Amino acid sequence: MKILSEIMDVAGREDQYKWRDLVMNIKNEGKESDPNKKCIKANGAGRTLAAVFRAFVAISFEKHSGLLEEILSALTLIFPLDAEAGLLLGSPDSLICIVRLLKSGDLFTRRNTIFRH
Question: Is 53 buried (19+), middle (13-18) or exposed (0-12) by CB count in 10 A?
Fold first, then answer.
């Protein structure tokens, strides 16, 4: 899926604005219909978003906290995640970031950070 490869390219360049646009596109497409959601999931969106999440956590939580929240919100649309995405999000740095978001975010952020069906 073209949008997923664009996200990986943008994450490497730290282009926050383009990156956020691409994640929003995934969220919007996933909300549009169940077939879209299935297509996004089947094309590895969970792994891609989890890898981007981990990459931005490694750069700076403080600098990218809003972007990290957007990724977690997008991931809730394609839950359950595959094993590879789970490993990426289960890394110590990623888990610390998720806990920080849960502790510091507003109710909306906390609700969207907790993965649900």
Answer: buried
36 to 12, 22, 27, 88, 92: CA distances (angstroms): 26, 15, 10, 24, 32
Q: Are 1 and 43 in contact (CB under 8 A)?
A: yes
CA atoms of 53 and 64, how far apart (whole Å): 10
Report whether the peptide linkage leading into residue 35 is cis, meaning its omega lies within 30 degrees of zero.
no
Compute the distance between CA of residue 30 and CA of residue 77 in angstroms, rounded to an integer: 7
Which of these ranges, 2-11, 13-22, 67-76, has the smallest mean pLDDT?
Answer: 2-11
The reported pTM is: 0.81
How confident is the model over 65-101, as pLDDT tens digits? 888 888 988 898 888 889 999 999 999 999 999 888 8
